[in-house]
Amino acid sequence: MSVEAGAAWSYQDLNFFGNSLSGIRTSITMPEHSLAFDVAQGFPYTLNLKHFFITHGHLDHAAGIPYIISQKAMTSQLPARFYMPASLVEPMTKIMKIWAEIEKHEYQYYFQGVLSDEIIPLSRSLFIKTFKTHHRVDSIGYTLFQKKTKLQAQYLGLGRNEIVALRQSGAVLHNEIETPLVSFTGDTQIEFLDTCDWVKKSKVLFLEATYLDDRRTIQNARDWGHTHLDEIIPRLKDLECEKIVIIHASSRYSNAEAQSILKKKIPAEFLDRVELFPGR
Ligand SMILES: [Zn+2]
Ligand SMILES: [Zn+2]
User: Where are the alpha helices (DSSP H) in 136-196?
Assistant: First the structure.
């Protein structure tokens, strides 16, 4: 099996499939919701999805955009929708125009530029909220939220007729509960955690840690707009996430090595919450 085939990882009813290896490829998909966070080079597991959330324009995250668009045309699928940092829309549109010229084919696609703190509705019960990240180029992170309406506590136990009567009298019966299910950072320095409270409360947080041990320093990581594991460890106590999934680790660490570094460095009380994404 080739590495590009991807790997699966699940937590409760949240299922993911993809790869993430620093500088080489990053795309994590949620097939049941037909969405991808980044697209790497456009691997087979991305080609039938509908919504693509691009964190930034580096090739290991975004090179697959033209290929996915062309594959959708070839297999008569509806045009895909790509969300990306606003400043990336113009250059990506130029790239698509050049491919159209080379291939003598006019492609259909939607590029939507996003800034931080934007809401993107996906369905009645799901939406994406963007958050600010700090990389060497314009970048954005994404959180998948679930929306649920819940009858307010004081109305619990009432019969149907009473509820109907209350509604007709104009009473607000339900509270809307928004739960951050999954946050995906893309490439970033650690500071994004200072401004995005909901990210720290996400059920699952995909967090980049490009460097894991002292073969590279914290400063090395920061110079390239990345995060070092040593910066994450002191912040674990502030994260309410049920799972923190490390992505984007450098190719200098094998899976086994990365896992053993995590096991050695992460304090025991957090060990069951921190995992390495298995697809590299
Ligand atoms: Zn990257
Ligand atoms: Zn990058």
Answer: 160-168, 192-195
